Structures are given as structure tokens and as C-alpha cells.
User: Fold Glutaminyl-peptide cyclotransferase from Urochloa decumbens.
Amino acid sequence: MPSGSRRRPPPPHRRGAMPPASSSTLSVSAPAPPKPLRLRRPLIAAAALAALLLLAAAYATWRVDSPPAALLARPAAPARFYSFDLVREYPHDPDAFTQGLLYGGNDTLFESTGLYHRSSVRKVELPTGKVLDHHQMDGDMFGEGLTLLGDRLFQVTWLKNNGFIYDRHNFTKRKSFTHKMRDGWGLATDGKVLFGSDGSSKLYQMDPKSFKVMKMVTVKYQDNEVPNINELEYIDGEVWANVWQTDCIARVSPEDGQVLSWIFLHELRSEGICRHCVACSVPT
Assistant:
């Protein structure tokens, strides 16, 4: 990592590959309440969990119950807190270090994978996990966030200010671009602008043609900045942001950066212990 980078050296679960799991199917049991949902085996990678859940979250039925114990001990905050319902599970390549994931229509996914010498862009068959198309990136590139605007896939890379644009139908048709973010972590779009993150508390809005930063807001919860904003999705007027090294997704207003509500996902891990985000540590 360059000495000037503000991103701290990552722990193994974020920037190092995990050993292949014994099975390639993401599997979660659904015991009767009040027992939490639990995984029957380790996930493919912590980053893959974040990306998969952001995709599934748009279709899940949300309920406002079972927040972490740290939240139960103090008065309710204005923001709302959500858990999740598991609705479906799919097989997935356990060796894919997923960084960006989105639905491509017709039971397909587009996926950006990370790690040096292993980064790629893929088209995946959702029901089977089969890789239908694949572009292997250069060994010095670490693939990160991915989003689809029209027929173009936009991808950013870690520790660099450049990214790539791919034809969704033919990955060999691609070109590069340069952005003004400090680093490349997450990408999303509302169909007009690109939303980007660089691992800080900043949420960027960029022109998809010039890549000029049109607007930048600071993501905050109760006047406290939320750092480590990672992968992004745009859902019904909100930007949903995975917070790196926590089990939390922040639902963010793109207008002013305020966190409107939180989604807690710690019950997906076998031990069910919450890795806290700023929502659990703000004094009241």
C-alpha cells in the first residue's frame, strides 16, 4: 500500500482471500422466533456477504425488531432500525472475492471480484452460479464497486483513481476513465448520476460522461460522521451503504447525507454478535 494512502492496512477478512468453503451454496436456516437466523457454514468472504445482502435487501420484507443489545440499553433514536427476512438462497463461487454485485435481468448477475492477480468482471447465472462471461483484469488491479447504467458497466479499483467501462454484452469492448475520488470503493446509479464512495464518510455524485464531481455530502448519523462507507446500491431514492468492518447497512439520503435508518445483519453470522457501527456508539 502506498505510504500516502489514508486507508489503513486491511485485516485478512477484507483484503485477503478466505479458504474455500466446503460447499458453494450460501445457506441460512430459518428457525422459529425468537431465535436468530444463522449460517450453517462460513460465507465465501465478508465482502461477498455485504454485496449479496445489498442485492437481497431490496426484495426482503423488513421488520423493526431485534436491534443489537447496545441499542436496547438506551433511548430510541429518531432513525429506525431494521432486521431482515431471508427470502431465497443461491449457489455462488466460493473463490470469488466479491466487491460489486448487481442484478442484470433474466436471472443473471454482474459481479466485480477483487484481490491482486485475481480481479475480474463476470456475468453469472443466478440460479446455478455458473460464470457465463468473464474478463480477467491485469494483475496490478484490485476490482471494487460495479454498477450498470444503460448498456455500460462502470467499475472502480482500489487505491487508484481510475476505473473501467465495459459493454454489458461484450466485456472485450471496454475503456478506462479517471475520477476525482480519493480511492475506489463503491458505485451505484439512479440512472442519471454515479454515486461513489472511497472508504471515508463522503458520498460523491459524479457525471457519468465527464466524471466531474457534481455534489459531495458527508454521511452522518445524529451529527456523527459515518466512516468506511463501502459498497453502494440505489434503492427508491436512497443510497444503501455497507459500512466496512460492521454488520450494518446505512440507508442514506443522497440530498444531505443523513442516515435515515439502519439495517442490522449480525444474525446472519453463526455467533450472532453485532460488530457495532456508529449507530450503537452515539451518546444520548
About this structure: The chain has a mean pLDDT of 78. The longest strand covers residues 170-178. The longest helix spans residues 46-57. The two ends are 38 Å apart (CA to CA).
